Structure formats: structure tokens, C-alpha cells
Amino acid sequence: AELSTNRRGLKKSHKHPNLENGRKTRPTRQKGSASKHAKFVRDIVRELAGFSPYERRCQELLKISKDKRALKFCKKRLGTHIRGKRKREEMQMMLQKMRKQAQQK
């Protein structure tokens, strides 16, 4: 981006790039979202290793429709409310996926 004559700031001494195309997304905005490769590797590990004992217990609680208890359990194991909600949601999706596979067979 070429530098503009449009100067900003206290002393107005710095030239700033023109932002015709808008701001570029900063790398920090991408932090936390998994790449294709990382997602692929995690799927394979999940397939081979299966679920940890606390995840299996969470699934059992969800099977008997104790969603709130499952959230409390996940929250206790993972430390924060948001992480607990995310894990409960993940376990619900896994149960749905398993049910679909069972129906197809």
C-alpha cells in the first residue's frame, strides 16, 4: 500500500498507508482456530485413542438426558464455564454422530 499524504496523530509527522481495501486481518485474529492439518491429526488421534474416562462419563450423563449435570461435571474437570459448555456440545455432537452410524448399519 502506498503511503498517503493523509497524516494522522499528535504531531502529524508520520505517513500512513492508504486503506482502500480495508484492514488486513491480523494474525492474532486467527489464533485458536485449527488449521486443516491440525484438525485432520486430531480426528485421527480421536479415532485411535477414543475418549478419556471423563468424556465417557459426560456422554453417559447426556444419554440419560442430564444435560445440566453433564455441564457441571465438565466444568469441574476443565476449570471454566465456557470450556465446559464447549466440551458438552462436542460430546453431544459425538453422540449424534454415533447414533447416525448405528442407524446406517
Structure description:
The protein has 105 residues and is mainly α. It has helices at residues 36-49, 53-63, 67-78, 81-104, and strands at residues 3-8, 14-17. Helices cover 58% and strands 10% of the residues. Strands 1-2 form a two-stranded antiparallel ribbon. A hairpin with a 5-residue loop joins strand 1 and strand 2 (14-17). Helix 2 runs antiparallel to helix 3 and helix 2 crosses helix 4.
Strand order of the largest sheet: 1-2
Distance between the amino and carboxyl termini = 57 Å
Strand fraction: 5-15%
Q: What class, by secondary structure content?
A: mainly alpha
Q: How would you sum up the global shape?
A: elongated
In total, the number of strands is: 2
| Helical run tally | 4
* Helical fraction: 55-70%
Radius of gyration: 23 Å
Supply the key terms.
single chain, 105 residues, mainly alpha, two-stranded antiparallel sheet, 4 helices, 2 strands, 10% strand
